[in-house]
Amino acid sequence: MASISPPVCDFGWKAPAFNLPNVDGKLVNLETSMGPNGLLVMFICNHCPYVKAILPRLIADVKELQTLGVNTVAIMSNDPSDYPEDSPENMRKIATEMAFPFPYLLDETQQIAKLYDAVCTPDFFGFNKDFALQYRGRFDESRKETAPESTRELFKAMKLVAETGHGPQEQIASIGCSIKWKE
């Protein structure tokens, strides 16, 4: 499991459309996911230690972002054949156990991950209300363990997007496990 980092933010890049099944079986698309002040699209999975390290704090931040008019969707694009923890059944299980306040979508064909150029879990894409990318950075300075006294980088960036429509100029790339591509 190699650590990998995505590229930095390409400000203004438009969010590619998606229409993916949620863990409850209902289809969720880009347009209806947008909040009044923005949308956070995040690529996560169940097995990744980087995701596991931030998940409770991520859920809390997402709930707070909702009060600022920023909606969130999570997309799981890994091939679960080698990582059964990422199966649709286990996606449903974790979403229920952790009471995800966002849709947890399955990108079975991996086409959406490719359209977004997602490279790792977690990989965050913060869009303003005009679907223009304003943040592609890390959650905070945590790695596989929670960093003590960590700054809420993702939250602060998306709060700024909600308030101004623009993300911070200085961003530090996320780090995580590579997307598990199908052969």
Largest sheet: 5 strands, mixed
Helix-residue proportion: 25-40%
Count of domain modules: 1
The residue ranges in which pLDDT falls below 50 over 5 or more consecutive positions are: none
Lateral arrangement of strands in the main beta sheet: 6-5-4-8-9
The fraction of residues in strands falls at 15-25%
Q: Identify the overall geometry.
A: globular
Description:
- There is one protein chain.
- A five-stranded mixed β-sheet has the order 6-5-4-8-9. Strands 1-10-7 form a three-stranded antiparallel β-sheet, covered by helices on one side.
- By secondary structure, the protein is an alpha+beta fold.
- It is globular and about 40 Å long.
- Helices cover 28% and strands 20% of the residues.
- The chain contains five helices and ten strands.
- The chain has one domain (3-178): Glutaredoxin.
- The chain has helices at residues 30-33, 49-67, 88-97, 111-116, 153-164; strands at 3-4, 19-21, 27-29, 38-43, 70-76, 104-106, 120-121, 123-127, 133-135, 176-178.
How are the elements arranged and paired?
Elements lengths: L2 E2 L14 E3 L5 E3 H4 L4 E6 L5 H19 L2 E7 L11 H10 L6 E3 L4 H6 L3 E2 L1 E5 L5 E3 L17 H12 L11 E3 L5
Parallel strand pairs: 4-5, 5-6
Antiparallel strand pairs: 1-10, 2-3, 4-8, 7-10, 8-9
